[in-house]
Amino acid sequence: MPEAAGYYNSKKTDDICEEVCGQASRAALTMTRIRCVLRGVDIRAFILLAILVPSCLFGIYLHGQKISYFLRPLWERPPKPFNNIPHYYHENASMAELCKLHGWRIRDSPRRVFDAVLFSNELDILAIRWHELRPYVSEFVLLESNSTFTGIPKPLFFSENKEAFSFVKPRLTYGTIAGRFVKGENPFVEESYQRVALDQLLRHAGISDGDLLIMSDVDEIPSGHTINLLRWCDGTPEILHLQLRNFLYSFEFFLDDKSWRASVHKYRQGKTRYAHFRQTDDLLWDAGWHCSFCFRRISEFIFKMKAYSHVDRVRFSYYLRPSRIQEVICKGADLFDMLPEEYTFKEIIGKLGPIPSSFSAVHLPAFLLQNADKYRFLLPGNCQRESG
Ligand SMILES: *[C@@H]1O[C@H](CO)[C@@H](O)[C@H](O)[C@H]1NC(C)=O
Ligand SMILES: *[C@@H]1O[C@H](CO)[C@@H](O)[C@H](O)[C@H]1NC(C)=O
Question: For residue 31, what pLDDT is reported?
Answer without folding.
Answer: 60
